[in-house]
Amino acid sequence: MAKSKGKTANEEKGNHRLTPKEEEFIRCHKALRGQIDNAGWHFQAWKRLWNLVEGYHQEMNVAHTFFRLTMRAHLLETVLRVSSICERSEEHYNFPDFLDFVKKDLDIFQVQDLEITRHGEEDIEAEIIADSTPTITAEMVEGHIQALESLPLDKLRAWRDDALSHIDRHVAKDHIKLLEESPVDIDELDRIIGELDYILNVYSVAYDGQEWDRNLMFEHGIQNMLEAVRAGVKDVQGKEAK
């Protein structure tokens, strides 16, 4: 969702006819933002479950296969989405093509009049207009291109390819050892998602003042679910003891 940083679009006056370049920017931004947010949410869910394994081992063993596959699915979904948007492709929007686009068409950021409503995405209750916006330059974009190229993506792709080609073998594992099965570095994956989110926000704020927050506060719900399982197990054990 967008953070409040100033006046809402509903409070602004004036109309702005979008150029074809702006329309393409909006389409690309929306697609990449959706992928980044979903990757981040899946990763949040995986990390929360992973951190709860030790404290709720018995509860997870009640439905071991379910939790095992759920955790794996969240991490695999994270890796697939991040890998997809970091690789050039004619089939979907991606960061390399997006950065090439904005570097070639810097003029879409030249209209700095905050009295103009420009974005208006339907899934936003109120468009937020920032009090100030960064100036996008070719040098800034080139810096982001280099930052993207420096991200540790090779390990991510290796894990993705290995996971997809050996999924049946992994399912047969007796214990939750996802980190031991793969070369994925969780801190590196956190860094990749954070860097992509930061880069995309730079251009979002520069274009229409919106800064997006990909974090959702849902982790407590996962622990509440495991607490419910714990309570159910104790209830069953109490009845069996009678």
Summary, kept brief:
This protein has 242 residues and is mainly alpha-helical. It has one domain. 63% of the residues lie in helices and 2% in strands.
Quick tags:
242 residues, mainly alpha, 2 strands, 2% strand
Protein described:
This protein is mainly α. It has helices at 20-52, 57-61, 64-86, 95-104, 138-150, 153-165, 167-171, 178-181, 186-208, 219-241, and strands spanning 2-3, 211-212. The protein has a two-stranded antiparallel ribbon with strand order 1-2. Residues 4-14, 112-127 and 167-176 have low confidence and may be disordered.
Overall geometry comes to elongated
Number of helices: 10
Radius of gyration over alpha carbons? 22 Å
Element order: H for helix, E for strand:
EHHHHHHHHHEH
Instruction: Report the biggest beta sheet as strand number plus sense, adding barrel if it closes.
Output: 2 strands, antiparallel
**What's the number of domains?**
1
State the end-to-end distance.
52 Å
Helical content, roughly? 55-70%
Strand order of the largest sheet: 1-2
